[in-house]
Amino acid sequence: MSSRTVSRRTLLQGALVAVAFNPTSRSWASTLEAGAVPLPPLDGELLLDEASRTAASDDFGHIRHHTPWAVLVPGSVKDIVAMVRFARRQGLKIAAARGLGESHSTFGQSQVPAGIVIDMSALATIHELDADSAWVDAGVRWHELLQASLPSGKSPPVLTDYIELSIGGTLSAGGIGGQAFRWGLQVDNVLEMDVVTGRGELVRCSRWRERPLFDAVRSGLGQFGIIVRARVRLVDVQPRARTYLALYDDLHRFLEDQRRLIEDGRFDYVEGSVVSSNGGRAYQLEVVKYFTPGSEPQDSRLLAGLRFQPGTLQVTDGSYFDFANRLAPLIELLKQLGVWGFPHPWLDMFVPARCAEDFVQEVLSQTTDADMGQGPILLYPFRASALTTPFLRTPNDRHVFLFSLLRTAIPPTPENVASLVQKNRAIVDRLTAVGGKIYPVDAVPLSPADWRRHFHPHWERFAHAKRRYDPDHVLTPGQGIF
Ligand SMILES: Cc1cc2nc3c(=O)[nH]c(=O)nc-3n(C[C@H](O)[C@H](O)[C@H](O)COP(=O)(O)OP(=O)(O)OC[C@H]3O[C@@H](n4cnc5c(N)ncnc54)[C@H](O)[C@@H]3O)c2cc1C
Question: Which segments constitute the FAD-binding PCMH-type domain (predicted)?
Fold first, then answer.
């Protein structure tokens, strides 16, 4: 039994359970007192106790904390439908979250000050697994899906670097990784979804059915519906992965080589990062070729023409699963050191290739090691032609770079966090000025006007979808869009 199951059981055992809502006092009642509206019958439970509500007021960022009035641990999709309808009637807000205290948001995006958080990790069943796709609950983590699909030699085509994220949470954002140059993001590889809209309707949508909802919900930041199930594309994968790491001292060459690699497709995975080297910074290429034992990759052919620094190449082989799960040991160590629990004022950006070199140089020149707190700086490109998701906003260029400052606030003081968040904001202003876009999962204060600019020229479409699917603004207030 996992520690997660134990903690949920403990929470349920000690929990105070609501049976009604009093619209006059705007509070829950654990008995059916006069004037109270009974809750709909639930297969799961609505938790009111402080421990559950406090857990739902935290996320990976540890920066914002809004305590909900209740936490729904759904026992079925029917519970989610019933509670969204109830919330709509009673003027309450609702948001889905990965799990109590396990949300990977960094700025309160899954929190709800006056309303209900739905713990999606309670619904985490893999319902079907066939040759081309898997039909899964939104609370399933990519890690779990991969463990189930790999025995048949199948994998989702794109995985995030960290695979403990929920399928529903990443489909609401985007889901980028080193295979995105070939396949697009995870949102470009979902085939069908069951969604509970802000009207409380359960709707199945896909490219061929209820297309406007399908297009709204992918990268829709939880604004239009709660994804309850998804059919995720699976592809054949080879069982082994050979990883090549090599350093560049020249940013121009690094970016050029990365762009060349995503065009010629000789590797299966292309990422890169900015690393500390000899008291300065260097650029680390990370590329991977999958293979079957007996037909090992030909290193010299794969590396031909790349201009990394001689003597810096490292080559390692491992299983596909260990490669996909490569961050697990590091994260275990960070947890043991207590650093995983520090605030994370992260900033992820999409930078047009045409100005990537200048922009990256400018940001790096203003970013000290102390500003990063040893967090990684990611830098890698993908191709705009692989993208199909209208509300995933990316710059207008053939190639786009993900440039991520994954900061840890050390020291973890409110002053340091505030200063780093302010730095994020200033960088976002520069990014916008050069035609870049944020990947909106981060610790950046954004006004409604910023959001309008972010979704331009699709803002009207975004606002129209809100009116159509969540006219009373029940869903996901923590994004601060409306
Ligand atoms: C350590 C770490 C590593 C990461 N690595 C990557 C990476 O490699 N690539 C990448 O693209 N991103 C990455 N991210 C960002 C991540 O994809 C987003 O933060 C994602 O939204 C988190 O998913 P979650 O399951 O924790 O969702 P939550 O934080 O619980 O939710 C995120 C948002 O989506 C909404 N939401 C959650 N579930 C649903 C649902 N079922 N239906 C509708 N709305 C929902 C929430 O209300 C909230 O607004 C990383 C984040 C962390 C903390």
Answer: 64-237
